[in-house]
Design a protein that fits this description.
11-stranded mixed sheet; 11 strands; Indigoidine synthase fold; 49% helix; alpha/beta
């Protein structure tokens, strides 16, 4: 059983009550470290794009993860926004990482705890290192007023969830956090139709970018009609995020990387079977599946993953800039 000091318990209590009243939110903000660049951009109403850190620590090997993280941040800057990679380092939530912090996170890799929203109090209280998932990144981004968040793909309803009840907290976090999430849809290892149904229940607005079909991460098409379509960042920005729930903006993978989709889907089916045979469940399942699919495809899936994340960063930055011009 973990033991906490009195000061750690105080920090844990504060974070466990992460509710919306202004006083509580101000206390929470005093517990995070915001980089000077991100703080200045937020204060002056400039475009900021939140980035998760699980993709760095658990999504790919070192040093490829570090190189990709730097390239994604560069794309955000080149398109007029400020990147805010979010992670917890030595128990301190950091919003915007410098080069040294990015290097440290990347080199530590999977020894860093994969941190969803529910895990934040424990990671902070024990002064551990945490790589934020979609749900945790949404929490911290919302706390400081960031309106746009770019990721690869969100979590969702797992296949066979009718038996396992395995549904990602990303979906409920989206339902209560008014932030625009730009992704390549839902990870293809999941049950996409059920995920879309669950998002509707959570009142999350879902739109596909320049497509009538919802993308399936590694492929442009999932066989599911998108609830709505948006054809430009400006059109999307005009929605003005004045809702209690978030918005999922699904961007299809670039065409040149979508061709390998059938091969990746075949590998996904095999990896899912292996996961069931090895009893891999919970938050260990997604990293296992993505790593196994990458092995089975000879690195093709990883290359596609990197390409779609960069494309999402491009579109997400354009949305953040368009939003900032409306304010």
């Amino acid at each position: 059983m973990a033991s906490y000091s009195s000061s750690s318990l105080s920090r844990l209590s504060t974070l466990q009550n992460h509710i919306s009243p202004l006083e509580a939110n101000n206390k929470l903000r005093s517990l995070v470290k915001i980089s000077p660049q991100v703080s200045d951009a937020i204060s002056n109403g400039r475009a900021v794009v939140a980035l998760e850190s699980t993709i760095i620590s658990h999504g790919m090997p070192y040093p490829q993860n570090l190189q990709t993280a730097k390239e994604v941040e560069s794309i955000v800057r080149e398109n007029g926004a400020v990147p805010a990679t979010i992670a917890i380092l030595n128990g301190v939530p950091c919003i915007g990482l410098n080069e040294e912090e990015l290097e440290r996170l990347a080199s530590l890799g999977k020894s860093v705890q994969k941190t969803a929203g529910r895990d934040i109090p424990h990671v902070v209280a024990t002064r551990a290192n945490g790589a934020t998932t979609v749900s945790a990144t949404l929490f911290f981004a919302s706390m400081v007023g960031i309106q746009v968040f770019v990721t690869g793909g969100i979590g969702g309803v797992h296949r066979h969830a009718d038996h396992t009840m395995d549904i990602s907290s990303d979906l409920t976090a989206l339902g209560r956090t008014p932030i625009a999430v730009i992704s390549a849809g839902v990870k293809s290892i999941l049950d996409i139709p059920k995920t879309l149904e669950y998002l509707e229940t959570q009142e999350v607005y879902v739109a596909a970018y320049k497509s009538d079909e919802f993308p399936a991460f590694f492929t442009e098409k999932s066989g599911c009609k998108a609830p709505s379509r948006v054809d430009s960042p400006e059109d999307y920005a005009n929605m003005k995020l004045n809702r209690k729930a978030g918005i999922l903006f699904a961007v299809p993978i670039p065409k040149q990387h979508s061709a390998a989709g059938n091969r990746i889907e075949s590998a996904t089916q095999r990896a899912l079977t292996e996961a069931r045979e090895q009893n891999v469940t919970g938050n260990a399942e997604t990293p296992f599946l993505l790593a196994r699919v990458n092995e089975l495809t000879g690195g093709t899936s990883l290359a596609a993953n990197i390409a779609l994340v960069k494309n999402n960063a491009l579109i997400g930055s354009q949305i953040a800039v368009a939003l900032s011009q409306l304010m």
